[in-house]
Design a protein that fits this description.
The chain has three helices and 31 strands. With 438 residues, it is mainly β. The strands form seven sheets. Strands 2, 3, 4, 5, 6 and 7 form a six-stranded mixed beta sheet that branches. Strands 1-30-29-28-27 form a five-stranded antiparallel beta sheet, with no helix packed on it. Helix 1 (54-64) crosses helix 3.
Length: 438
């Protein structure tokens, strides 16, 4: 699987499920030393019990980010739900910097009014607690919207405290595989919440599926399917499930990558010989060659400004990352560390590239500074693949092998946080992190 040619034909496998619980389950394996202490008080309820525990979801989000040390239901003896109930001395003595409180009130059939406040404990005073309020929201939602709302609150807390937009409301696309004894392997392209909940199958097939890629608005996914024993690139609408073929040339049709404006796809085609990079205009279906040589050119990814495309090529003798100027077609080499670099992914600011890196036979995920040229590893393993960076640039999602199974992992962009997402059944591979969805 690690040979360069296998990049083009990575057949990943999926397990079919449309259940509401998590097929993946976040497991923090390493967090930041001295993580920011925060208390999440259980939200008080009024009327019928809500179907989701909002405070527990928020606690899990923040704890699993590796950036927070969360004091929740099991570590608190005071559970305020309004500013007037807060004993600030108690929370200061715990050593927490911030406190989240809230209420959930039933306001009709399957309707809930959620009130949330984030407090600065250091500023809080028993006689003037309103000074401590830094975020205050009141939102009415249905029962089905409570979990997304909890993730939205986590995003607000993350941004308020760390100054970076949170990714708890984003989604993951990935491939699951289930090998049935004496039966065919099942492949499913699936989308889940960022924490692994609410998995939804988009395509179930007996034929391989690979290379899911999110559109910039998060409403479509492009992918490669080997239905009818030939590689074709499809685009599917997430809301309706409608899909259509956009590339079905002779030979390889692979590695779709959306342009930042969503109007074009960079694709890999071998219709004229060796695999090369092309750009497909989705409105006119005009196809423009970006590379045209006898090297293996694959895995394109657009820079955020749309002016360049990074890609993997063996033109220098082994797989390395190169950059293509879209306007001039000029190509320059970007990666030099190690004997193998592939599967590049730009950070949102365009200043860094996450990539799969091999040195001394070991595959890890690394981050290249495009301005200074420095390179550092984010993982320390022996079998990692397919990095995909979060839209805020804080984390990198990747495939890894754990206890003999293919699972998903996450690492912070500084390498200090490690998270594992083991599936309950089957293998999970070829992940893609969505853009911001709101």
């Amino acid at each position: 699987m690690r040979k360069f040619s296998a990049i083009l034909f990575l057949f990943v496998s999926l397990i079919f499920s449309n259940c509401a619980f998590a097929l993946l389950s976040l497991e923090l394996t390493r967090g930041v030393a001295g993580a920011i202490p925060i208390a999440i008080s259980p939200f008080a309820t009024e009327g019928s019990n809500p179907p989701e525990d909002i405070s527990a979801i928020i606690s899990n989000d923040l704890q699993n980010s590796g950036r927070f040390k969360v004091y929740g239901r099991n570590s608190l003896s005071s559970f305020p739900s309004s500013v007037h109930d807060v004993q600030f001395d108690y929370f200061r003595n715990l050593g927490v910097d911030n406190l989240a409180i809230g209420q959930i009130r039933s306001v009709g059939y399957d309707r809930y009014e959620v009130t949330f406040q984030l407090l600065d404990v250091i500023k809080g005073k028993a006689d003037a607690g309103q000074q401590a309020v830094v975020v205050s929201k009141k939102i009415e939602v249905s029962g089905a919207q409570l979990r997304p709302l909890a993730h939205h609150i986590s995003d607000m807390i993350y941004q308020q405290v760390l100054g970076v937009r949170g990714v708890f409301s984003t989604r993951l696309a990935y491939i699951l595989v289930q090998r049935v004894p004496n039966g065919p392997t099942r492949y499913v392209l699936e989308v889940s919440d960022q924490d692994g909940y609410n998995p939804r199958p988009l395509l179930t097939s007996k034929d391989p599926i690979m290379s899911p890629a999110w559109s910039p608005n998060g409403r479509q996914i492009a992918y490669v399917s080997f239905e009818n024993q030939r590689a074709s690139i499809y685009i599917e609408e997430l809301a309706t499930g409608a899909r259509h073929i956009v590339s079905q040339f002779r030979g390889i049709n692979g590695a779709p990558a959306w342009s930042p404006d969503g109007r074009k796809l960079a694709v890999v085609l071998s219709k004229d010989g060796s695999p090369n990079i092309y750009v497909l205009d989705l409105a006119t279906r005009q196809l423009s060659p970006m590379t045209h040589d006898w090297s293996i050119n694959t895995e394109p990814t657009w820079s955020p400004n749309g002016r360049t495309i990074a890609f993997t090529s063996n033109r220098g003798g082994g797989p390395q990352i190169y950059q293509l100027n879209v306007a001039t077609r000029a190509v320059s080499r970007l990666s030099y560390d190690g004997d193998y670099n592939a599967r590049a992914s730009y950070t949102g600011d365009g200043n860094h590239l996450a990539m799969l890196h091999r040195e001394n036979g070991v595959f890890n995920v690394g981050l290249l500074d495009l301005n200074g040229g420095s390179f550092h590893l984010l993982t320390n393993g022996a079998d990692n693949e397919s990095p995909s960076i979060a839209p805020n640039g804080s984390m990198v999602l990747y495939g890894t092998n754990y206890s003999g199974r293919n699972v998903l992992g996450m690492a912070s962009s500084d390498g200090r946080v490690q998270i594992r997402l083991p599936a309950r059944s089957g293998d999970v591979q070829d992940p893609a992190w969505s853009p911001f969805l709101s």
